[in-house]
From TrEMBL:
This is MFS family permease. Residues 39-434 form the Major facilitator superfamily (MFS) profile domain. The chain crosses the membrane at residues 39-62, 68-85, 106-124, 130-149, 170-191, 197-218, 244-265, 277-298, 310-328, 340-363, 375-399, 405-423. InterPro entries: MFS (IPR011701), MFS_dom (IPR020846), MFS_trans_sf (IPR036259), MFS_Transporters (IPR050171). One of its GO terms (molecular function) is transmembrane transporter activity. It is found in: Cell membrane. The keyword Cell membrane applies. Signal peptide: none annotated. Keywords: Cell membrane, Membrane, Transmembrane, Transmembrane helix, Transport. It comes from Streptomyces collinus.
Length: 434
């Protein structure tokens, strides 16, 4: 316990001293990358490649299942839900495996499964073979992502403690890499679909072959400072960690809000424009904002806000995005003018995301039990995913009730606003949130 307290206090001292230091010269993405350790650069490039391979295939899966395979609409939705469950729902399993066996074997296993899953999906021609391939693809991410995310968080803490600046800068760069991959992946997939869906799947598999080779070559067998936990009981301690569970609940409301890009926003765009064609431009707007402004936003927040205030500001911005649409709905605007509230929602949601995501990931190491960071990072995603699952069902029901146009958006605005009260409070005497 004494070691754990001294570790947390040293982190707080590092953050406090960093905030008091003279203003640093304006940095570029490349300058920040050069400051990072080779392992951090590998993990961040891995996130970029991971999302390129993933988004080269998955955005086009629903259409392929409905047209080429001939699945009914309900079965397509079921398959997509299985993929989400086998990924997000099992993150906590992947995190536990990382703590027990280390980062390298879990990442390598995830890469092998992802290669096999994409190759299988490319040749799958029946419902059951598609379901098998999708489950393998999802579980591969449930291994891969917690391993990478937990080690990036741990390395970001070490980077902060060495006096380089707030850990959120590293985690922001990790988010930028992910969004860049999410932007490039669909463009690559669209080009490959000019041949066929199988080609897109095999190209996605090829990306993960490259990731696998890179980790076999560059990932160390043992990462200094990483302690493997052999004893059991971590889950029981986690479930009694009220501060961590409070963070999960608040983070889950952000993910529920983000999920409205795929649930509530398409209905609003359809109403305003008469089709969902502008959706692709709004998604591109979100990705471009993250790629080009995530680091400046994080630097600004790191100089002025602690983790608690950063998440508070982000959640309130997200709430205001829903409120913008709610305020505009009674006007009945259509056409280009009618799309302005939707664009405002996307911008405010994205800026809120840029504050919430790095702060939440940076907060987990302070709340996690020693040696169980993988379990806690996985649980952050899994618990939040359960909140999204329940919340999305409730949102769909709300949208179908035929209520006045502004009411569903006002309810959605209230969720992240109320989540501010759920955030764990700062400890007395702490210079920053923990």
């Amino acid at each position: 316990m004494t070691d754990l307290m001294s570790r947390v206090l040293s982190r707080r001292t590092a953050r406090t001293s960093d905030a008091a230091a003279p203003e640093r010269p304006r940095e570029s993405t490349w300058r920040l990358c050069r400051e990072l350790s080779p392992l951090l650069r590998l993990l961040i490039l891995t996130q970029l490649a991971f999302n390129i391979g993933f988004f080269a295939v998955l955005p086009f899966l629903a259409e392929h299942l409905g047209t080429a395979i001939g699945m009914a609409g309900w079965l397509v939705g079921f398959v997509l839900g299985l993929r989400t469950f086998s990924q997000q729902g099992l993150f906590v399993v992947g995190g536990w495996l990382v703590d027990r066996y280390g980062v390298r074997p879990v990442v390598l296993a995830g890469c092998v499964l992802r290669v096999a899953g994409f190759a299988w999906l490319g040749f799958a021609e029946s419902s059951w073979t598609v379901i098998g391939a999708v489950l393998v693809i999802g579980f591969a991410a449930a291994l891969f992502s917690p391993a990478v995310e937990s080690e990036v968080a741990r390395q970001a803490v070490a980077w902060e403690e060495d006096g380089h600046g707030p850990r959120t800068r590293v985690l922001a760069l990790f988010s930028v890499a992910g969004q860049a991959g999410a932007f490039v992946g669909p463009l690559l997939g669209a080009l490959l679909l000019a041949v066929d869906f199988r080609t897109a799947c095999l190209a996605g598999a090829a990306v993960f072959v490259l990731v696998l080779a890179g980790h076999l070559w560059l990932m160390p067998q043992h990462i200094p400072g990483r302690v493997r936990v052999r004893e059991r009981g971590g889950a029981r301690i986690l479930l009694r960690n009220r501060r961590f569970l409070a963070l999960c609940c608040a983070y889950g409301t952000y993910l529920l809000a983000y999920n409205q890009l795929y649930l509530a926003l398409p209905d609003e765009v359809q109403r305003a424009a008469g089709s969902q064609a502008p959706l692709s431009w709004l998604f591109a707007l979100s990705s471009v904002l993250v790629v080009f402004t995530q680091l400046p936003v994080t630097r600004w927040a790191g100089d002025r806000l602690d983790l608690h205030r950063s998440m508070t500001a982000g959640l309130l911005l997200i709430a205001s995005g829903f409120a913008v649409v709610a305020a505009a709905r009674p006007t009945g605007w259509t056409g280009a003018t009618g799309l302005l509230p939707a664009a405002g929602f996307v911008i405010l949601l994205t800026v809120g995301q840029m504050l919430v995501v790095p702060a939440a990931r940076a907060w987990v190491p302070d709340l996690a039990e020693e040696g169980r960071l993988g379990l806690y990072m996985g649980a952050l995603s899994s618990v939040s995913g359960l909140i999204v699952l329940a919340g999305s069902a409730a949102t769909g029901f709300l949208l179908d009730l035929g209520l006045p146009a502004a009411v569903p958006w006002l309810v959605l605005a209230a969720v992240p606003a109320l989540a501010v009260a759920v955030l764990p409070r700062r400890e007395k005497g702490a210079g920053t949130a923990a």
